[in-house]
Amino acid sequence: MSDARPIGVFDSGLGGLTAVKELIKILPNEDIVYFGDTGRVPYGTRSFETIERYAKEDIQFLLRHDVKMVIAACGTVSSAAPHVLAGCGVDAVDVVSPAAMKAAQSTKNGRIGVIGTQATIKSGSFKNKIHELMPGAQVFGVACPMLVPLVENGWFGIDDEIAALAVERYLCGLKEKNIDTLILGCTHFPILQPVIDRYLEGKITLINTGAAAALRAREILSANSALNDSGGARKFFVSDSAESFARLSQIFLSTDTHEDVSLVSFG
């Protein structure tokens, strides 16, 4: 059996494309509908109530496209509003649980760092999940609110001085904690992975939350005999500036998405 319905993926903006990239790599026959809420990015500085409302609207938009699965490719939503995802009515995947499991499996000294938005770090979601899996682990979280705007504005090259300074400012304390594993707790952050890896001198295992979520999605679809064996179409929707999204997404996905990006509005 197979299920030709698409996978729905949403994020506050561009970051969720790191999960889409991994989905395309490991599930090339799956149709994907992506919604980036670029008109309301970032989510990480909002109240929990606002994040919950945004998540409900994002999910309802995807459900109107008859998706068979919803992936919250957003660390903030996965951390602050997991109940919304759990109650969406279809199989759902967050980015917290798969990444926490990967970190627990990867660490050798039990000292794990987490970087994310303010809402993600405040929720303690990654720390709590890691402690469920590895009670003795020491988890150090740092909120990095300025990294999302850097990515959204295209300032993420390995030689970008502003990106390098921001990464140094946020990660200097973690570097001193003797961590051996770092969770990139926002799906925007893997786009800065070369800058982060350079600052950490290649000595720390970096956990890509989007990649971990994509692998979990494959596990669920395979277990449910719901894989698609004849698809591969992708549609992208944004709530602001389709042209800007198309330009940057081409860099992230290494493919031209311009004709497939549509502007939608909740207002």
Molecular structure report:
44% of the residues lie in helices and 17% in strands. With 267 residues, the chain is an alpha/beta fold. It folds into two domains: 7-94 and 211-263, Rossmann fold (3-Layer(aba) Sandwich); 96-209, Rossmann fold (3-Layer(aba) Sandwich). Helix 5 (96-106) crosses helix 7 and helix 5 packs across helix 11. The chain starts with 6 loop residues before the first strand and ends with a strand. The model has no long low-confidence stretch (mean pLDDT 94).
Question: Concise description?
Answer:
The chain is α/β, with parallel strands linked by helices. It is built from twelve helices and ten strands.
Please write out the topology.
Layout: E1 7-11, H1 17-26, E2 32-36, H2 48-63, E3 69-72, H3 75-80, H4 82-86, E4 91-93, H5 96-106, E5 111-116, H6 118-123, H7 125-133, E6 138-143, H8 147-152, H9 161-175, E7 181-184, H10 193-199, E8 205-208, H11 209-223, E9 234-238, H12 242-253, E10 261-263
Parallel strand pairs: 1-2, 1-3, 2-9, 3-4, 5-6, 5-7, 7-8, 9-10
Helix pairs in contact: 1-11, 5-7, 5-11
